[in-house]
Amino acid sequence: MSGTDQSGVPGTAPRRCDRCSHEMVAIRMTVDGNDLIMESCQRCDVRRWHLAGREIELPEALAQVGEHVGRRR
Ligand SMILES: [Zn+2]
After folding, report:
1. Cα(14)–Cα(39) distance, rounded to whole angstroms?
2. Are 41 and 27 in contact (CB under 8 A)?
3. Which residues surround ligand 1, an ion (CB under 5 A)?
4. What is the Cα–Cα distance from 14 to 12, expressed in whole angstroms?
5. Which carries the bigger pLDDT value, residue 7 or residue 49?
6. Is 12 a domain residue?
7. Is residue 3 part of a domain?
8. Within a domain: 65
9. How far is the CA of 33 from the centre of ligand 1 (A)?
10. What pLDDT is stored for residue 71 in this prediction?
11. Half-sphere exposure of 2 (CA within 13 A, CB side)
12. Ligand 1 centre and the CA of 14: distance in Å?
């Protein structure tokens, strides 16, 4: 397959779920200056994580967030 998606487009167009084509909800947050984006399909209860434009696994995402949030003074 040669799917050339638009890469690095600032406008957050809603993505469609791979499984059910339902519109996915995207939540964007910033972790250590990088964009961390969570996309979730409410039908399939599927979540996808993207860090700085590339897809990452959930444990990796949690590590990033936990590292950031877990800091205490
Ligand atoms: Zn879905």
Report:
1. 9
2. no
3. 17, 19-20, 22, 41, 43-44
4. 6
5. 49
6. no
7. no
8. yes
9. 29
10. 63
11. 0
12. 13
Containing domain of residue 65, as a range?
Answer: 25-69
For 18-63, how does the pLDDT look when each residue is reduced to its tens digit (9 = 90+)? 999 999 999 999 988 999 999 999 999 999 999 998 999 988 888 8
pLDDT value at position 66?
A: 84
Query: Is residue 9 one of the residues assigned to a domain?
Result: no
Domain count, the chain: 1
Q: How far apart are the CA of 8 and the centre of ligand 1, in A?
A: 23
* E strand map for the chain: 25-31, 34-41, 46-51, 54-56
Residue 48 β-bridge partners: 39
Instruction: Look at residue 40 in the predicted model and tell me its pLDDT.
Output: 94
Confidence of residue 12 (pLDDT cuts 50, 70, 90): low
